[in-house]
Amino acid sequence: MASSAEKTRNRLKNIGSFDIIEKLKENLNKNSDTEKDRLPIELKITEEGTTERRNFIYSETGKTLPLLYGEHSFNNLNTLEGNIENFIGMSMIPTGVIGPLRVTGTDDNGDFYIPLATSEGALVASYHRGAKACYLAGGATSICLVEGVQRSPVFKFNTIVELGSFLSWVLPLTDHFRHITENTSRYAKLIDLKANIEGNHLILIFEYSTGDAAGQNMVTLCTDEICQYILEHAPVKPEFWFIESNYSGDKKATAYSFSNVRGKKVTAEIILPESIITSVLKTTARAMAEYWRTSTVGVIQSGAIGAQGHIANGLTALFIATGQDVACISEAAVGITRMEEKEDGALYASVTLPNLIVGTVGGGTALPTQKECLELMDCAGEGKARKFAEICGAVVLAGELSIAAALSSGHFTGAHKKLGRKKVKS
Amino acid sequence: MASSAEKTRNRLKNIGSFDIIEKLKENLNKNSDTEKDRLPIELKITEEGTTERRNFIYSETGKTLPLLYGEHSFNNLNTLEGNIENFIGMSMIPTGVIGPLRVTGTDDNGDFYIPLATSEGALVASYHRGAKACYLAGGATSICLVEGVQRSPVFKFNTIVELGSFLSWVLPLTDHFRHITENTSRYAKLIDLKANIEGNHLILIFEYSTGDAAGQNMVTLCTDEICQYILEHAPVKPEFWFIESNYSGDKKATAYSFSNVRGKKVTAEIILPESIITSVLKTTARAMAEYWRTSTVGVIQSGAIGAQGHIANGLTALFIATGQDVACISEAAVGITRMEEKEDGALYASVTLPNLIVGTVGGGTALPTQKECLELMDCAGEGKARKFAEICGAVVLAGELSIAAALSSGHFTGAHKKLGRKKVKS
Amino acid sequence: MASSAEKTRNRLKNIGSFDIIEKLKENLNKNSDTEKDRLPIELKITEEGTTERRNFIYSETGKTLPLLYGEHSFNNLNTLEGNIENFIGMSMIPTGVIGPLRVTGTDDNGDFYIPLATSEGALVASYHRGAKACYLAGGATSICLVEGVQRSPVFKFNTIVELGSFLSWVLPLTDHFRHITENTSRYAKLIDLKANIEGNHLILIFEYSTGDAAGQNMVTLCTDEICQYILEHAPVKPEFWFIESNYSGDKKATAYSFSNVRGKKVTAEIILPESIITSVLKTTARAMAEYWRTSTVGVIQSGAIGAQGHIANGLTALFIATGQDVACISEAAVGITRMEEKEDGALYASVTLPNLIVGTVGGGTALPTQKECLELMDCAGEGKARKFAEICGAVVLAGELSIAAALSSGHFTGAHKKLGRKKVKS
Amino acid sequence: MASSAEKTRNRLKNIGSFDIIEKLKENLNKNSDTEKDRLPIELKITEEGTTERRNFIYSETGKTLPLLYGEHSFNNLNTLEGNIENFIGMSMIPTGVIGPLRVTGTDDNGDFYIPLATSEGALVASYHRGAKACYLAGGATSICLVEGVQRSPVFKFNTIVELGSFLSWVLPLTDHFRHITENTSRYAKLIDLKANIEGNHLILIFEYSTGDAAGQNMVTLCTDEICQYILEHAPVKPEFWFIESNYSGDKKATAYSFSNVRGKKVTAEIILPESIITSVLKTTARAMAEYWRTSTVGVIQSGAIGAQGHIANGLTALFIATGQDVACISEAAVGITRMEEKEDGALYASVTLPNLIVGTVGGGTALPTQKECLELMDCAGEGKARKFAEICGAVVLAGELSIAAALSSGHFTGAHKKLGRKKVKS
C-alpha cells in the first residue's frame, strides 16, 4: 500500500509537491503586467504586413527565422537523414503567428509567440483572439502533470497455466529491465511495468520516461532489448510474441490512453473576467457555459473519446511547425474542455490533454524551419519538452475559448433575431 | 419502406450498381501488366539519388515539380489569401515518394507515385515496401462507397412538447432546404436530414455532398442559411440554438461517424500471393494473420474506435503533401484493417476508412507545392476527389501490410530463437 | 431527398406529428390534480405494513396480486413452456412498490404504482422519493420517439467486386423482403434495410417493428426466411454467411445502438419547482445541476457510452418484476441524463433511453407474478408496449433525480462542515 | 520502480505466483475423470422431468432446495430487512439447472450444477450444451486474476494551484486512510489510491478489496469516513465535493473499468478436441473460428466495449438465482471472447471478464432461494467469493461456445445449401 501511494506521488510529482506549487504561485505573481505591445491580426496577407510582423517578432524576441522567412534556402540534404527516405523535395506550409500568449507553468513562464502552420483559413485568427483574451486576463496556468510512453509486447502461450509460470518468473525482474534500459538508451528510464492477461495472451506494458524526446522509437528499442533477454532466459517459452500488441495507443485515439497518460498529460486553466469576454470574445460567460453544456451533451451522443471542441486544429498546426510527429494528432487531440460561469460574470475554462506526445529533441525538431520555430518559443533542445507541453496546453485553451465564443455569440439568439453571416472555423 | 430502400441504393450507388461493378471488372482486367520499372528505395539522402528520382518521376509521369524541388521560389503572397492569417513564412516538410502504387478504382485506375511529407524516418520506406507488394500482386482494389458531410445545429426548447411542435413544422420542409442549399453554394447538395432528440434538445443533422471539396465550410454556410429561414418562420421559437451541437464529428474520432460516413467512406482490398509475401514482405500469410488476430484483440482492449495499425502515418503525410485539412486526421485515421490467411498461403487484406475528409479543390489544394503534389497523381482540381479518396485507401492498405509484415516477421519466433535488432516504425 | 425526409418523419411520427403533440398537450392539462393519497414509505418490513400497502393498492387500483402476494401457489408447470428448460423451481425476488408515479405520455397518462423486484436495499426507497417529487410537480412527460429492432446477417465474398454484384441484386428486393416478413410473422414489419461494407464483408441491417413484443426472436425468424430466399436466388453466392454479425447490439452496450435505436427510444422530462426540491429532495437545483455537470465530466473520463447515474438500478428491478429479458439491461441501461438550474430556482431534468428493449406480450410477460405486475400498471398484453416504455422512462427519471439529490445534498459542503453518515445507494 | 513492480505482483498474486500455479496444475490433473452420469436436458417442462432432476441433483450433491422447489413457503419477513422497502410480495422467476460444469480454478475445482433463473427460452439449453462440451473436454480452467472495488470522490477547487496544495497534503496520508478503513469495516482493505486531475477537479480513486462481499456499500462507507477526515483537516478546502464523481463505473459499462478491474477480473479457457466439437456442438473448429473472426469485426464496428457474444444471458440468470446485484450486469457483461482453430482440428476458446462484481455474503445472498442456489454450488458464505467468480467465468465460457456453435453450424453454408429453421437464442 505504501508503495502504491508512493508511486502515485512520484507520478504526480509536478502537481503533488509543495515545491512545485510554491514555484507556480511565484510564477503567477510575476505574470501580472499586461502592458506589452501586441501583434495586430492581419486577415489579408500583404508584403507590408508580413515585414511588419517579422520586425515585431524580432523586436520582441530577438529572433530572426531566415529559413522560415525564405531568406536562406535550404540545401543541406544530409540534415534530412533519418527523417525521410526517397526524398524529392520540401512541401511548404503557410505559417502564421499568434501571441503573445502568456503561460504560467511549472517549468517556465512568460509571454510566447506561437508559430502555426496550416492551410485552413480563420484558424490562426481564431487562436490569436483566444490568446489575446488569455493574455489580458493575466495568462493561462498550464501544468504538465504526468509523463510516460508505453510499448506493449504480447506473448502467447499454450495455456494460461504456462502464462502464469512465465509471469511468475518475469515480474521479479523489473530491476534488471531497468538496467537493460539504461544500457540501451541515454534518455529512457523504465518507470512502470504492468501486465494485462486475456486467456493465454499476456501483454506486458512497459512505461518509460523519455527525457525531452517524444520517444516512440527509443521505447521500442529498449523494449526489444528487454524482450530478447526474456526470450533467452524464460523457463517457459511463449508460442510466439510481438513487440507491440496494439495496446499502447500509438497513432490512435484510445480510451485506455485517455484515462492514463501517453507522452505528457497537461491541464491548463484560466479565469476570464466579464469585461474581457465582452470586449475580446464578444459574448458572455453565460452563453459560453450554455454552449459548453449543450455541446458536451452533443459530443457524448456522438460517441467521442473525451469531450472537446477543436483541439486538433491548433495542435496540428503547432505540430507541423515544430517538427512533431504529426500523425500523433490521432491521440494527442483527445481531451476534455470545460467551461463554467462564475457568480460575477466571469468564466472558468480548462483543457486537459492526457496524450500529448511531444519532444524538443529528436524526430523532426532539428529540421530547418522546425528548429527556428521551436527557438522562437525558446523550446529547442534539451530541457525544454515539459515547457513546450505546457505551452501546447495554453494554445489549446486559447483555441477552445475562441471557438466557444464564436459559436455562442450571435447565434445565441431568440428566434426572431436576425443572424449575421459568419464563417465558422472548426 | 420503398423510399428507404431507394435511399440506401442511392447512398451506395458506387458499389450497389451494375454499371459501376462492370467498370470495376474492366479496370481489374487492365491492371495486369507489372513490367514497369520501379523506383528504387534510398534510405540515405544524397544529391545523386534525389536527382535520379526526380528524373525517374519525370520519365514516368512527365511532371516537373519546381516548387517542391526548390527550383522556383515562392513569392506570390496573395495566393495564400484565405489559407492563413498573420503570415510570417513557410514551414518546410521533407517529402519523399513511393510507388508505383497500382490502384483499381471505380473512378480511375492506374499506377501512381505518391508524395508523402513527413519527418518520421522509416515511414516512407515502409509504405514503399507495401506499395511494391501491392503492385506486384496486380494492384489494390479501392472503392469509394458513400459520401456525405454533416453539420448538426442544436435547438433548445422549454419543453419537449414545444420541441415536438417545432419538429412537426420543420420536417416537411426538406425540399425547401434543398432549394436554399442550391442558392447558397454551387457545389453543395443536401442529401439527408435526420433528427436526434434528447429531452428538450433537438439536433438536426444536415448531410450534404460537397462536390470535389472537403466541404466543411460549405456545409456551415448552407446550414446557417437554412437555420436563418427556420428561425424566422418557425411557429415555435427555440430558447436558443447553436450552428453546431458538436455531434457532427468535426475534428474528432467518434463512434457515430465511424459507423456512418464523414467525407468519403472507402474500402480497399488485395490478395497477396505467397511468393510476394515471402520475397517482398519477408514473412508468411500465417504470421501476418496471426499478428492481425492478436493485435486486434489488443486494440479492442485499448478501447480504440475501430481497429487498425498505423493508418495515421501515411494518411498524415499524404494530407500534408496535398493541402488537405491535416487536423482532420483525428477522424480520418479511424478505420478497420483485416488480414486473413487463405488456403494456398496467400493473404487477403482490406482496409476500410469511413471518415476520409478529402478534397481536390478548395482548402490548401491550390497552394504552391500542394498543387504540384496533387498533379503528380493527376488529382488536382474538379472531378478528382473520388479518385483521390480511392488512392488514399490504397496507400493506407500498403502501409498496413508493411507494418504487419515487420511486426510478424522475425519476431514471430519460438523463444529460443535469437532476435534481430530492428527499428519498428509506428 | 423527399423520400429521406419522409422516412425521418415516419420514424419520428410520435413526436413529429401535430396530432400527437395535441394529444400530449391535452394529457398535460389533465395531470394537474395532486390531491391523491400517497403510499407511505416503509423501510422496515412488517406484516402490518405489507398488509396496509396491499390494501392501499387494492383501493387505488382494484388489483389483487395473489401470486405475487404468495396467497396462491404456482403449480401450473406447462405455463413455463418456452421460458425455461431443465426447470427445477422458482427463484423468489423481493418486490416493493413505488408511486403514484404520474406520467404524461403519447399513449396514455395517469398515476401508476410501479413494482420493483430487487435485493438491493435503499433502491425502492430512493426511486419512491423521486416518484414523489415528480408527482407533486405534476408528473413527468415521457415520449416514445422511435421504434426498431435489428437483425444483422453478414455475407462474406471472395472479393469486393463479387460483393458489389450481390448487393446490386439484393437492394431492389426490399418490397419482396417485406412480403416475406408478413408471411413469417403476424407482428413483425420490416421498416428499414441498410448495408454496411467492410472489405469483402457485407452486413445487411434489417430493422423491424415488432408490435408489442420485445421481438428479438421474431426478427431472427423473419431474417432467416429472407436470407434463405437470398441464398437460393442470388446470382453471386457468398463464401459463407451468418445470421448475426454481432453488429445488432443484442445484449451489449454499443455506440451504434446508442446513437440509433434498439427496441424503443424514450425521452422523459420534468421541471421541479424549488419548493419541491427543498421539501422532498432536501437539496437545491443549483446543487443538483452542479452535481450533474461535475459527474458528467467524471463519466466522460470513465469512457462510458452515454452519461447517466444509475439507470440500471430501477430498470433492472422493473424488468425482473415484469418478465422482460433482463439480460437486455446491458443495452437498455445506456442513456443520457441531464439536469439544469432554471432562473427561478427550479430544475429541468431529462433522461433519454435509446435502447429500451421491452414488451408486454411474449417472453416472460405471461408468467405468474410477472403478468400480475404488468396488470398493476394496466400494461399487460397487446397495445401496451409503448405505454410501458413511457412508464419505464418516467421511472428512470425518478431514480436519476433521487440519486442526484442524495449525492448533492449534505455533501455539497464547504470543507469545515461536518458530514452526516449516509448510506448511498447506487 | 521496485515498488511499482511489487504492486503489480501483489495485484496479480493469483496468477503471478509459483504456489498458485502449482496448485492449478495439481487441480488440472485431478479433473481427468469424465465418467459421471449427466443431467439430461428437457426442453418440455413436465412434473416427471422436474422430479427426476431434483432427485438427480440430490443424488449428486446431497442438496435439497425446499424453498426453490416450492416445498416450503417463505414467511419470514424480517429476513428481507435491508434488501427491500415497501415490500408487497415475491416475484417468481423460473429456474433451470445446467451441469455438471467442470471447473479448474485457483480456489477450488470440481463439477458443479449451476442454477439459472430466466424467462428466456433456449437459454438454459444452450448453456447446458456448452457445459457438456466443456465437461467432456476435461473442464474449463478459470482464474480470478485481480480484485478491487472503487469509490471515486471528486473535489473541486478555485484553481489548480489550490488543487495542487490539497493534493500535496493528501497523498502522503494513505497509511492513515488504510487505518480509517480498518476501523470502519471488518472486511474492506484499502489497496490503492490514485488521483485524476482535470482542470480544478480532483478525483481520488480509492480501491478496496472487500472480502467475500460484492462490496459497493462497504466502500462507500469507508470512503465517506476518509473524506470526513480529509475535509476536517485539509489546509486547503475544496469549493465542494461529492462522494462519487461517476468515474468508478458503478452500474455502467465503461472503458476505464474494462481495462482495469471492477470487482473481480476472471479469465477462463478451454481446448475442445475435434471429436467433441463434432458430436456435441455439431460444427467444426474452423467454422467457429471463422465465426469468431467475422463477428469480432462486426462488434468492433458496432462500437461495443470489449468483444463478446452473449455473456449477459448466462450471467444475468446466474445473478438472479444467487442474489447478486443484477443491475451490475451493466458492467459485468463486458468482456472479451476469443476462439482459434488449432492445427489438429481442436478449438482454443477463452473468455475474460474484468468487471465481475459478485459476492457470497451480503446483498441478496442470504435471501431464501438465493442462499439455496449458492449452497447448490457450495458457494454460500465466507471464503467462497473467489470460487464463485471462477465458476461465473466457466459458465460464461460454456455459453459463448454454445452460441458460436449455433451460429456457425448449418448457416456456415454455401449459397445453394438449404437452411434449417432454427431458433437462435441471444
Automatic annotation (TrEMBL), chains A, B, C, D:
Which family does the record assign? Belongs to the HMG-CoA reductase family.
- What is the name of this protein? hydroxymethylglutaryl-CoA reductase (NADPH)
Species this chain originates from = Sporocytophaga myxococcoides
Q: Kindly list the GO molecular function terms attached to this UniProt entry.
A: hydroxymethylglutaryl-CoA reductase (NADPH) activity
The root-end lineage is: Bacteria, Pseudomonadati, Bacteroidota, Cytophagia, Cytophagales
> What PANTHER family does this protein map onto?
3-HYDROXY-3-METHYLGLUTARYL-COENZYME A REDUCTASE (PTHR10572:SF24)
Give its E.C. classification number.
1.1.1.34
Q: Which UniProt keywords apply?
A: NADP, Oxidoreductase
GO BP? coenzyme A metabolic process; isoprenoid biosynthetic process
Cited InterPro entries: HMG_CoA_Rdtase (IPR002202), HMG_CoA_Rdtase_cat_sf (IPR023074), HMG_CoA_Rdtase_CS (IPR023076), HMG_CoA_Rdtase_eu_arc (IPR004554), HMG_CoA_Rdtase_NAD(P)-bd_sf (IPR009023), HMG_CoA_Rdtase_sub-bd_dom_sf (IPR009029)
